Amino acid sequence: MSDECTEWILECREAFPKLDRFTITSEYKKLGKNVLGRVKGQVERYRDIKPKSIFLDGEVKFSTKTKEEHSYQIFINEKLKKVEPDNFRKQVIQNIMTHELLHIENKDLTTLSKKYSRRMKKKIHVSDFHKECLDRFNQIRKINNINPIKSYDQLKEAESKIATKLKI
Ligand SMILES: [Zn+2]
């Protein structure tokens, strides 16, 4: 079952070319109440050592440029496996994936993950975010020749109804 998330996230990434060099995986997972999806990120920073400075000066020097290795895991609430048929479930899940991918692109995690409390205070779910979410989701739908969704509020309402039905 986890294979379908792997496949569907690849399609979603078509709408996020900026994230091309990142490692992003997706799978179903048992998640908490009211949580449809979650993204876990890891950004590793490396300082580049300068071998020449050690050999010639006996002192260690690092280049100022830091390399960043980004890897993310997008978890989808496993209760959503019950959504049927397959093409309907795919849309529901790709919408959640789009939301999480947009958080990655906006660096909502990487810049703020150190201070979780600060992250909570930052308003990340603002109307611009929602508009962008819908726009990207429609781009992905276009790949599958599915009509665009016009209203974010209607999409949100439909999503809530699914969550309530599945007791998420
Ligand atoms: Zn969010």
General description of the model:
By secondary structure, the chain is of the alpha+beta class. The protein has one domain: Metalloproteases ("zincins"), catalytic domain (Zincin-like), CATH 3.30.2010. The chain is built from six helices and three strands, in the order αββαβαααα. It has helices spanning 2-12, 51-57, 86-105, 116-121, 127-143, 152-165; strands at 23-29, 37-49, 62-77. The structure holds zinc ion.
Q: What is the correct CATH architecture?
A: 2-Layer Sandwich
Beta content comes to: 15-25%
Helix content percent band: 40-55%
- Number of DSSP-assigned strands: 3
Quickly count the domains.
1
Shape descriptor:
elongated
Structural class: alpha+beta
CATH C-level class is: Alpha Beta
N-to-C terminal Cα separation, in Å?
Answer: 19 Å
Count of DSSP H/I helices? 6
Main beta-sheet annotation: 3 strands, mixed
Q: What is the rounded Rg?
A: 19 Å
Low-confidence stretches: none
Order of helices and strands: HEEHEHHHH
CATH fold description: Zincin-like
**Annotated CATH homologous superfamily:** Metalloproteases ("zincins"), catalytic domain
Record the strand order, biggest sheet: 1-3-2
| Ligand catalogue | zinc ion
Average pLDDT value? 88
Which helices and strands occur, and which strands form pairs?
Blueprint: H1 2-12, E1 23-29, E2 37-49, H2 51-57, E3 62-77, H3 86-105, H4 116-121, H5 127-143, H6 152-165
Parallel strand pairs: 1-3
Antiparallel strand pairs: 2-3
Give me a quick take on this structure.
By secondary structure, this protein is α+β, with helices and mostly antiparallel strands.
